[in-house]
């Protein structure tokens, strides 16, 4: 009787083991992965986004010819732009718009060291939440850690860039011409603050582009570590 019970018990155990092995075999085979690997994988993904996408913004026309991040005129100046074009001053309006984007391109060169420091500080808990988060969770993390510091770095650079190309004179001329027109309300926007904010948006937009590609396209995972880590969120 005891032998029969033992036999039934062993059959049950081996049967359960076989079922368990079948389940294991169906899981993604990414190999052993540690907490350190996960954090390193997230750092690598962010570094890739910074190197591949943010660097594009520092080049000539990096903002101006990129429709995702091109800086348009602030709301209060759009009527200035439209009015100037209507009276034949379209070239002057175009030049003013280009200057705003050139200043942003200059400023973004200050971003990389700040991003690098923020990426180094990612802990495993940060990485786990980011990995299982939304398509732009890593970008949101960077935004929360770098936005204030980047704003303070960008603003003086943009101000200097404006001075370098005579932006103040050009925009003063534009706005003076507009304010001199009959039936218009005077405008005097803070262009330095506006372009600083738009430059920041552009930087985070491009990092988010790369992050989403890594999350959703296996072909964008260009290293073994990226493949192993991001397989966990597939």
Describe this entry's structure for a reader:
The protein is 74% helix and 0% strand. It is mainly α and 234 residues long. It has one domain (45-233). The longest helix is centred in the middle third of the chain and has 28 residues, at 137-164. The protein is elongated, with a radius of gyration of 27 Å. The chain starts with a helix and ends with a helix.
Short summary of the structure?
Keywords: Signal. The chain has 234 residues and is mainly alpha-helical.
Keywords for this entry:
234 residues, mainly alpha, 10 helices, 74% helix, disordered N terminus, signal, DUF4197 domain-containing protein, DUF4197
The tally of helices reads: 10
Shape: elongated
Q: What's the number of structural domains?
A: 1
Distance between the amino and carboxyl termini: 50 Å
The count of strands amounts to 0
- How would you characterize the largest beta sheet? none
Give, in order, the helices and strands.
Answer: HHHHHHHHHH
Topology:
Layout (H helix, E strand, L loop, with lengths): L1 H25 L8 H23 L17 H12 L3 H19 L2 H10 L3 H8 L5 H28 L2 H14 L10 H26 L7 H7 L4
Helix pairs in contact: 2-5, 2-6, 2-9, 2-10, 3-4, 4-7, 4-8, 4-9, 5-7, 7-9
Keywords: Signal
Organism: Winogradskyella haliclonae
Protein name: DUF4197 domain-containing protein
């Amino acid at each position: 009787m005891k032998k029969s019970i033992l036999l039934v018990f062993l059959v049950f155990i081996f049967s359960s083991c076989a079922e368990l092995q079948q389940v294991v075999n169906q899981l993604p085979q990414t190999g052993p992965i540690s907490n350190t690997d996960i954090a390193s994988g997230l750092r690598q993904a962010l570094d890739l986004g910074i190197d591949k996408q943010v660097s594009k913004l520092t080049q000539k026309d990096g903002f101006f010819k990129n429709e995702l991040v091109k800086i348009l005129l602030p709301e209060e100046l759009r009527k200035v732009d439209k009015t100037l074009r209507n009276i034949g001053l379209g070239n002057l309006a175009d030049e003013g718009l280009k200057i705003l984007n050139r200043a942003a391109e200059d400023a973004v060169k200050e971003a990389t060291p700040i991003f690098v420091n923020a990426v180094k500080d990612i802990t495993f808990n940060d990485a786990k939440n980011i990995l299982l988060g939304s398509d732009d969770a890593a970008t949101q993390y960077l935004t929360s850690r770098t936005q204030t510091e980047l704003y303070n770095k960008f603003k003086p650079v943009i101000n200097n860039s404006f001075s370098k190309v005579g932006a103040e004179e050009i925009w003063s001329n534009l706005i003076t011409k507009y304010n001199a027109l009959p039936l218009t309300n005077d405008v005097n926007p803070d262009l330095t603050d506006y372009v600083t904010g738009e430059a920041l948006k552009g930087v985070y937009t491009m990092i988010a582009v790369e992050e989403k590609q890594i999350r959703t396209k296996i072909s964008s995972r260009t290293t073994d570590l990226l493949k192993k880590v991001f397989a966990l969120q597939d």
